[in-house]
Amino acid sequence: MYKDKPRIAIVTFTDDRDVGIADESVENHLREKQNEIKSFLEKNSIEAIDPLPEITRDKNNFRYGLRKIKEVNEAALILNNKYDVDAVIIGAWTWSPPMLIMQFVRKVNKPVMYYSENDPMGGGLSQFSASSSSLLEWGSNEHASRHERNYGSRDEMLAWVTGVTAASRLRESALLLWGGTY
């Protein structure tokens, strides 16, 4: 199947506890940040795939980010079976257990960029640090061990998308050498 634009999945995780920052305003903030990244990518001719609206949840659940292993596995299944993505950008906007991110990266098995921005009121930096360290320490595949970390540079995000898309497409391509003696 020919893809003319880069196809990048974007996902967000949230706190798995039902106390503390479990609040609808926090989840709305996550949704806004996710949509902000999606709009940015689409304005730069990149197809952004957000599997979160397709996750099966209770209708009364106000949560937006992935917060349970079941949701992580379902998101990975959606991305692996329904969409042929070149890579994944994980938005670190609030605290989430590193094990959820590790499970997701292991299941999706695509190049990963961990992205966050400076927000002193959110727990994104602690998630960014803890999960990135866990991916390096317990790298369950090459993408976990060699994930990219980006703290606030959207220009670097675009350069990374270009690079991983080219590498992904080259891996799937055939090369024909024509003519001459070798």
Give the tags.
182 residues, alpha/beta, five-stranded parallel beta sheet, 6 helices, 5 strands
Mean pLDDT: 83
Helix-and-strand structural type: alpha/beta
What's the arrangement of strands in the largest beta sheet? 2-1-3-4-5
Q: How many helices in DSSP terms?
A: 6
Number of E-type strands: 5
Global Rg: 17 Å
Q: So what's the overall shape?
A: globular
Low-pLDDT segments:
none
Distance between the termini: 32 Å
Major beta sheet summary: 5 strands, parallel
- Please report which band the strand proportion falls in: under 5%, 5-15%, 15-25%, 25-35%, 35-45% or over 45%: 5-15%
Q: Please estimate the helix content.
A: 40-55%
Strand/helix succession: EHEHEHEHHEH
What would you say this structure looks like, in words?
With 182 residues, the protein is an alpha/beta fold. The chain has helices at 24-43, 69-81, 98-108, 124-137, 142-145, 154-171; strands at 7-12, 47-49, 87-91, 112-116, 148-151. It has a 5-stranded parallel β-sheet, with helices on both faces. Helix 3 links the parallel strand 3 (87-91) and strand 4 (112-116). Helix 2 (69-81) runs parallel beside helix 3 and helix 3 (98-108) packs across helix 4 (124-137). It is globular. The two termini are 32 Å apart. 37% of the residues are buried. The mean pLDDT is 83.
